[in-house]
Please model this.
Amino acid sequence: MKKTTVALAFIVATPLIFTGCSSGTSHSEEPIVTKICDQPSQINADTKTVAILAEQGPQSADRYKDEFESAIAGSKQMEARLLVNAVGGSRSAASGLVDTVLKGDGVNPTERNQDLACKDKLIEEAQEELAGLPEQQKLDVFGALRRLQGELPESAKSANVLLLSSLYNTTQPADMSDPRVLEDASATIDQLDADGLLVNCKNWQVYAVGASFDGRQALANTIDARLENFWRTYMQRCGGKLVAWTPRLGTFPSASG
Model:
């Protein structure tokens, strides 16, 4: 992620695995606090995890803007570890846009508030980066899931995974524009498993939000039903649970999750 200087001398550096903030002062009538969000944050067995996989591109960013903000608000209430990755057209789509714990670090309320403001800036920049990436004609959803699997420790008790993206995968080996891919979900998932594309999603609580799109066009009801069945079966097979399939996020986290 690029280095960026922000108001009140906020400086964003390349994030480590878990990012926090450190502080310093300069000489002026009012102290100016310099924040560098590159220090490890405290996490423990009770730290919850929220991962957002967001479809890249300006139109997609606008479509999911409200859902992204609702997810961030819920993550702050949970004081969760937050990860943000892109869903793009290849397995090399942007990842690690945000990886931080949404709990203020510091020895007093002022420092903790400054730390949270620093992290807010990281999230804002991630949204801007997602919107600045090109829209994709083809989506590789499975590649995004594999990248996320590599970033989540197997020891995590649970993770709330928000898919703010179309889940109508249109890259091989499971191009859903071929009707046969969704007609027999079990056979397709068997093949994905053989190809190493069935991730380990043990204890993932998955929210599929606005998933029934092909580009800017909503999918027909029959395809939507098959798509939901596919992803519900996929998540069950890989050890997780699809807790929401919805055009809008609503309450997060879900009480059923």
User: Anything to note?
Assistant: Residues 1-35 have pLDDT under 50 and may be disordered.
